[in-house]
Fold:
Amino acid sequence: MAQLLDGKQLSAQVLQEVASEVELLRAEYGIVPTLAVVLVGEDPASQVYVRNKVKRAEEAGMGSIEHRLDAGTTQDTLNELIDHLNNDPQVHGILVQLPLPSHLNEDEVIAAINPAKDVDGFHPLNVGALASGRASLVPCTPQGCMIMLRQIHPDLSGQNVVVVGRSNIVGKPMAALLLQADCTVTIAHSRTKNIESLCRNADIVVAAAGRAELINADWIKPGATVIDVGINAIDVDGKRKLMGDVAFESVARIAGAITPVPGGVGPMTIACLLLNTIRAAKDQLS
Structure:
């Protein structure tokens, strides 16, 4: 059986580091790194995510501010709130929970956030900095995946990696981080030919396609490392079950290491959000 990459355990270690950094910043500069979270509407999954993010921030001794807006909030109202947070020196990181209600323009909202406070790493300037290898604030999920990968591969140089999925949130920034680590990277997607064969030749597979159990044991080279980013809510016998993009039971018999769903990448995403808030607070000191 594959080695299990426990995101809960690893994220707890990262959060301990965050808490130590919070104490240092408080002692040396008299500041409390503070994260502002904006939630628009009543999406149940988004409410859970926001609650967990705020809880972890408070556990690490950070400041947290919640702005909960109703689903009918206008673009102008949301932009005004972001402008206020941009100009508040007590706020070091800003996160607008996605997805937004359909009448709001997500690209406009992301672009409105001060890049220095963009702890999601989605602002076009931060995306460009990542592409050129100079980013301070990197998208949280790919960042968490890299920390997990280095538990198995301290030196990623020369590893052959296939990233399944090309989203702006995971697939593309994941590929950029892997390239910076001197991996040979292929991005596969719904139009990729012979995708199974590509994956079978990979030392590492990062699954971020958003399709439950897309990747099975036939896709995986024996001993490969598998990072499952997918979180898919599926009804099984009338009960809601969370599944990844990887058929865990069969792949775990083939792979050398694998992340579970839940309890794998998810906790690392929140931990890296707080890491980004610390980085943002430090950068704002200069």
Notes: The chain is about 40% helix and 15% strand.
